[in-house]
Specification:
By secondary structure, the chain is an alpha+beta fold. The protein has 4 domains: 35-64 and 315-388, conserved putative lor/sdh protein from methanococcus maripaludis s2 fold; 67-77 and 230-241 and 251-307, Elongation Factor Tu (Ef-tu), domain 3 (Beta Barrel); 80-108 and 189-229, RNA polymerase II/Efflux pump adaptor protein, barrel-sandwich hybrid domain (OB fold (Dihydrolipoamide Acetyltransferase, E2P), Beta Barrel), CATH 2.40.50.100; 113-185, Helix Hairpins (Orthogonal Bundle). The chain contains 5 helices and 25 strands. Strands 1, 2, 3, 20, 21, 22 and 25 form a 7-stranded antiparallel sheet that branches. β16 (261-277) and β17 (283-291) form a beta hairpin. α2 packs antiparallel against α3. The longest helix is centred in the N-terminal third of the chain and has 32 residues, at 113-144.
Amino acid sequence: MKTRAIETKLLSLLAALCLVGCKEEKKTTDVAGPKVAGEKVIFAADAPQTASLSVETAEPRKVAITHFTGRLYWDDDATVRIFTPVAGRVGEILVNLGQSIPANTALAKINSPDFGQALADARTAAGNLRAAEKAFTRAKELQAHGAAPLKDVENAEAAYTSAISERDRAQARLALYGGSDKASDSMYLLRTPLSGVVVEKNINPGQEVRADQMLANATQLFAPLFVVSDPTRLWVQLDVHEADLPGLEAGQTLRIYSQAYPNQAFEGTLENIGDSLDPATRTVKVRGVVNNPDKLLKAEMYVTVDVLADATKITQSSVEIPSKAVFMKNNQSYLFIEKSPGEYQRQIVKLGIEQDGKVQVFDGVSPGQKVVTEGCLLLQALLDSEDKS
């Protein structure tokens, strides 16, 4: 009887173990694999793969500063590069580098045969006009008293008209050089048409100069004799990539930083955005103006530029997400959005500026949506395996 009781207990224990094993096997087989439906990947509620996925909420873009590098150069609206319009030899230089000068200041004296010939032609034409005018007046008086025929008056009038034309031509040529037939000598004075500071000087006494020094295709060989500009106002050039253009517009505030003055910011304004891309660098030329009242910044400096945008406009037009949420496929940017727990949809997005681990998204994601930041490649691999099957 005792042996039979033991056997009965053993049979009951084996039956219980079999039941537990069957339940666990049934539980294991009940966990279904992920389902792929178009651009969606769907997991069961207790799928182990979801443990490797992380999501973050897309937020309206609050950062309104974009960082660029730039180069400073002279403001062309307040700069003149001066070449000589005549050939000759430099006799005397009248200004020094760094000197402030008003408009029409004489910069240098040039002993020029070209200018001397133009001056002589103007003086000769003026003398010929005076003589022709007297002859015409005399011919009219004689004809009025019957002492000269009408044809003499007509010839004198024609000579007088021709002398006027020659005088005008000679004076126009002389005026082109900036001279006058009232000049006391034939030394040509090279002048500046604008006021400002002499910021560049490439001329020496005794140097031979020519009018054809100003060659458009050889500026690296033939520098201007003088450059006069206003150093209190500079231009800054930014080379901006296509993706950064939506956040830029004329009138935005610029803050310029230089390595020479790391703790000082200079104020400026964005003025112009180029209409074409550079085919070599695939960037757009963007120009701003920089206030430089103390003349601390120098032309040709490389600087760091912060563009301050209207935060309200940025918030309305884009959201900000972690950069690691985005991946590339076939030259297109994608991310996954969590539609509901365990349901993830692939979405094409249009990206903007990326900085500080965040990327701006203009299209494809709305504020408040949850994007996958960890496990994107796992979800993409599931979509790819479905496409191959």
